[in-house]
Amino acid sequence: MKAGILLVEDDHFFAKVLKRYLEKADYEVICCENGERGWETFQQRPFDACLLDVMMPGKDGFELAREIRQKDGHVPLFFISSRFMEEDKMMGFNSGADGYLGKPFNFEELALRIKVFLKRARLQPDRRLLYHIGTLTFDYTELKILHPESGTCVCLPPKEADLLKYLCENANKKVRRETILMHVWGVDDFFVGRSMDVYMTRLRKHFRVDPSVKIETMHGLGFKFSFDNKTRPSYTTAALHN
């Protein structure tokens, strides 16, 4: 079955050309001309990826991205826009985007980025992936950090959860900054790097309740996610309950 892509773009000529290219790359592409129609279409069927323009009449791409993220925290979401100033990219990533390409861009590069994200193993819908980190539990499926002792939890944005998952899988190792960016975002980009720094700061705050959990900045290298007890995070899959 072909992967389905939602393309929301008000430039009809550009949308037609991009749709034709992606269909040749063996994707099914559904086009919408504005944010309102894009949101209606997204709710009608599942999509494997979303491509959103920013400047559209009515509901813009940033607003649409936030709505999509509230409904689906994992679908790959990319902005394709002629707006590519630093503040635009930061708004895009803070809206939940996995990538941001400024027009004009190389269609092949976009197709490769989509392929990278679609290759990521998606969890079975009836399974839950849990990482036990010190006294805390990270529920990747539900995008939450659980505090068993207090019974409270912290909800994470999708990309912050992806970052923490990668850190868990590479605990007690020094991981280069560019390696994290490529594995989590699929690109080593200055603007994405700034977004990653914000997420790292947030994660450190989440783990303040357990001094044994540390996210160290290795200057000139990257980061190290570690435990005083030298125990790597374990993860288990557990059936979801309604």
From TrEMBL:
Gene3D superfamilies: 3.40.50.2300, Winged helix-like DNA-binding domain superfamily/Winged helix DNA-binding domain (1.10.10.10). One of its GO terms (molecular function) is phosphorelay response regulator activity. It comes from the Bacteria. The modification 4-aspartylphosphate is found at D53. Residues 127-227 bind DNA. Keywords: DNA-binding, Phosphoprotein, Two-component regulatory system. GO terms for cellular component: cytosol; protein-DNA complex. SUPFAM superfamilies: C-terminal effector domain of the bipartite response regulators, CheY-like. InterPro entries: CheY-like_superfamily, OmpR/PhoB-type_DNA-bd, Sig_transdc_resp-reg_C-effctor, Sig_transdc_resp-reg_receiver, WalR-like, WH-like_DNA-bd_sf. GO terms for biological process: regulation of DNA-templated transcription. Residues 4-118 form the Response regulatory domain. Residues 127-227 form the OmpR/PhoB-type domain. PANTHER family: PHOSPHATE REGULON TRANSCRIPTIONAL REGULATORY PROTEIN PHOB, REGULATOR OF RPOS. This is DNA-binding response regulator, OmpR family, contains REC and winged-helix (WHTH) domain. It comes from Chitinophaga costaii. The lineage of its organism: Bacteria, Pseudomonadati, Bacteroidota, Chitinophagia, Chitinophagales.
